[in-house]
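Researcher: Next sequence.
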Amino acid sequence: MQERTITMKMKLALNENVELIEFEVVYSKRRTMAIKIDANGNIKVYAPKGTDRRTIGNMVSSKADWIIKNLQEIKSTMAQEVKREYIDGESFMYLGHDYPLQLKVNPELKKMTVRLSEGRFLMDTPVADGAVIRGGLEAWYRVMGAEHINARLDYYQSLLDVSPNRVTIRNQKTRWGSCSSKGNLNFNWRLLMAPAEVIDYVVVHELCHLIHPNHSKSFWNQVSAILPDYKARKDWLKKNGSRLIL
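Model: Next structure:
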C-alpha cells in the first residue's frame, strides 16, 4: 500500500522563542511515530496509518526543545556556507583537507583536465568561466568518488557479509547516502570532500541497511560493532555538511 502524506503547521516554544514550523506527515504501515529533520531543516513525521492530527500534534509538541534546537543549529550552519568564486587560489576540500585551485587557461584546449598534484588542484581549461570550472571539478569528484567509495564498500561488505545489488554516485540534495528496498546503494559525490573516516561511516551506515532496513536499536548496534566511534563521525557530518559544496 502506498504511503499517504499531509502537511501540518504548528507553533513550538523554546524558552521565550516561539517558532511556527511546517512539517510533512507520512502515514504508513508502522507501529510507532518518529520525527526526522534533514540537512535543509525539512521536518517529516512518520506515523501509523489512521493516527489523528491531535495525537501527532501532541507528539511534535513533546519534542519541541529537540526540534527547535536542531533547526537553530541548521540555520547557524547554513549561515556559514562558503560562497564560491571559482578563481585561481580558491580552496576546495578533498578527504577533509583543503587544496588551492591552480588554473591554466588555454583557449586552444578542446577538453578540460583536472588533477590533484603537489598539494593543488591543477586545472587546464579553455575558459575561465565559473560554471565551466565548477562542472570540471564536479566531474573529477564523481570519478574519484566512484573509485574511493567502491574500494571502501569492498572492504566493509566482507566484514558484514553483505553485497549491494548496485552502487551509484549521485547528486543528492539532502542525503549523503541511501539504500533502496532492492538493495541498491546511492552515495552523494560531495562525500569526497569529507574526511576518510566520515566517508567510511556513511558506507557502513548504508551497508547495515542491507541487514536492517530501518534505524532500530539493532541497526545502530550493527553500525557500532563495525565503527565503535560512529557517533563522532556522524556528528562531524552534521556540523560540517554545509561546507561540502562546490
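Model: The helical segments are 53-62, 64-79, 130-160, 196-208, 217-226, 230-240. The first strand starts at residue 4 and ends at 14.
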